[in-house]
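2024-03-11 09:14:02 DEBUG pipeline.ingest accepted 1 chain
2024-03-11 09:14:02 DEBUG pipeline.ingest length=415
2024-03-11 09:14:03 DEBUG pipeline.predict start
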Amino acid sequence: MERRKFIRNTSVVAGVLAFSNGIASTAKYGCKRPPLSERKFTSKAIEDIIQDAKAKISDPEIAWLFENCFPNTLDTTIYFTVETNGRPDTFVITGDIHAMWLRDSTAYVWPYLPYMKSDPRLQQLIAGVINRQTKCLLIDAYANAFNKNKEGPGKWSLTDVTEMKPEIHERKYELDSICYPVRLAYAYWKETGDVSPFDADWSVAVQNIIKVIHEQQRFDGSDNYSFFRESKKTTGTAQGATGKGNPVKPNGMICSVFRPSDDGTIFPYLVPSNLMAVNVLRKLVEMLNEIKEEQHLVAQCNSLANQVETAINKYGIINHPEFGKIYAFEVDGFGGQLCMDDANVPSLVSLPYQGCVDMEDETYQRTRQFIFSKWNPYYFEGKSASGVGSPHTGYNKIWPMSIILRAITSIKFFK
């Protein structure tokens, strides 16, 4: 089976298995989904998959978990409309927060991509996510979370000192946020061959992504982004005194003032996000060559990918005293380095899942050994589980997604 499809299809299954393996308490079996009349979106293809999977899963609790978890995004987080011009628009809230994160909206619909061909309406819904993400990138490519309309800042953003607009819910600049829309667009295109979402607005959105990357390489001082927030946690705002994070020595890598967890970076060159950027820049090269034929953008993406990759190999791989050459989590170009991993994706352990490195790459495998050891300050072990946490969730707490990613990046699981 094609590697990309295999990883997508196993991601939800792995999560269910990990969740049921001693972590979840046994609940009374029965449908916990909203009543049919209250579900946000229903896909025949997904309902068929649920019934097929339930028939094949021998453990009734796992079957129950799959039935309730797999369609949850469609049941509870989707606001799907078709605009008067016939263009689909899909707003995806992130759980209990009625705002759309670029990262989360991509990850939420990701498991459904293989089923679009058998359900045109599901394909239309995911095209709508791409269209909405394009709108967001046209508003502000530095923002991480957006409102459905013009509701203004979220409750924690009310006093943020940054360039807010009424369409923005939160404006924490995270490099991965501008990578995820490309990841979704590329996968959608590969699955369907449909190019209708990739119009003139999408091209401008791509140019906005490239502009942010250029600025955040910080070679010429053109970066105008800054962020200040009053916070009880040091990770809740940008580090340093400038609102741009701690200082860096420009080397070709891309600064990320915040991590995928929404925590401020200590050293702004966040290595997993930079590796993700290389991957999506290469995807953009392919898309722009075959769909748009915009050679000036192709040249920029190629140049950026090569610059960032070269810099990662020189500055992002460090010599650890116990494990040898591994990927650092963050660096600053001056020689400063942070050795840890955070559960939120992109993380170091998630690199093969993201398509950034080969599963059996030696540097990755050494990094993986480090991640799941006491050398990683955010690796925790207990009676029921072991896994990686985050400064975001607090010390001695495992974030379940680290267990899921550990499973689906295991060579034994993969094979």
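2024-03-11 09:14:41 DEBUG pipeline.report The chain has one domain: 83-414.
2024-03-11 09:14:41 DEBUG pipeline.predict end
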